[in-house]
Amino acid sequence: MTRSPSISFEFFPPKTDKGRENLKATREQLAALNPEYFSVTFGAGGSTREHTLEIVREIQAESRVDAAPHLSCIGSTRENIQQLLNEYQSAGIHRLVSLRGDIPEGMQDTGEFHYANELISFIRETTGDQFHIEVAAYPEMHPEADNATADLNNFKRKVESGANGAITQYFYNADAYFYFIDACQKLGINIPIVPGIMPITNYKQLASFSSACGAEIPRWMSNKLQEYGDDLESIRTFGIDFTAGMCQRLLDQGAPGLHFYTLNKSEASLAIYQQLNLTPV
Ligand code: FAD
After folding, report:
1. Which of 118, 105, 114, 265 is nearest to 200 (CA)?
2. For residues 123 and 131, is the Cβ–Cβ distance under 8 A?
3. Which residues are catalytic?
4. What is the pLDDT of residues 75-99, one digit of tens each?
5. 215 alpha carbon to ligand 1 midpoint, in Å?
6. CATH number, domain at 266?
């Protein structure tokens, strides 16, 4: 029997009432695609932590799609994390995206957790198998890693600590993903590794995200996008065609699903999804 690919969408917690209304409309449109879950990001330190909890509660209450909060451990204590886990359990949450988080500039004391594998071990020690745990994977290598082998071994450590699945950083070179999957299989890593998909709608924003997170925009693509300048319609059309083609190739060659970084907008993810040859769930 062939399994339908797991489709999921990621949101960030809006800061304003208007942003919240927009997100509500976005998630209602995307819910029609019957995704496996909606994930909600978590800001390192400060108020967005509360917002993650609020948005997750709202999704659980109003939508038939499961909500999966991201949880990052940098700068946190065991007590803080335990408290959040309790809140997520009471809210009926079953899936967590568990991360270290980016270390804020100038932060000297990173708290009681240093890496994501420690967070995963803590979640397993304190809550057993109550949560399905997703972790981050980096086909083009995490920017702080010494080298790709060290990064892969660190990824393996997260799997051995109890991760059930992984979502990758976005990429525009499908071969980087396939090569990473081969390397994981050689190390005996067998959890599903779902490609993270970043629709292309705005070159400047994409270039800035990519330099921060170490995702490569291929030279030919960067040249093309720069040439479009302010012609957002051409960027959008090119971005949807290219990304849909890459998604189809990923699925055809065995990717277990797709996780869309929506930036709280539905149009590009919907347009990509509609170009895919997907078996209905
Ligand atoms: P880790 O797996 O801990 O890895 C971090 C670095 O340390 C890597 O270079 C790794 O090779 C190295 N390393 C890992 N373990 C060890 C060890 N035991 N010893 C030595 N070195 C080690 N950020 C947010 O703030 N909020 C979010 O909601 C969020 N969501 C994300 C969702 C996805 C799908 C992805 C891919 C990223 C997300 N991020 C988010 C960004 C993420 O927090 C950063 O990429 C962060 O820098 C690393 O987090 P991690 O969980 O991958 O860390």
Report:
1. 265
2. yes
3. 10
4. 899 999 999 999 999 999 999 999 9
5. 14
6. 3.20.20.220
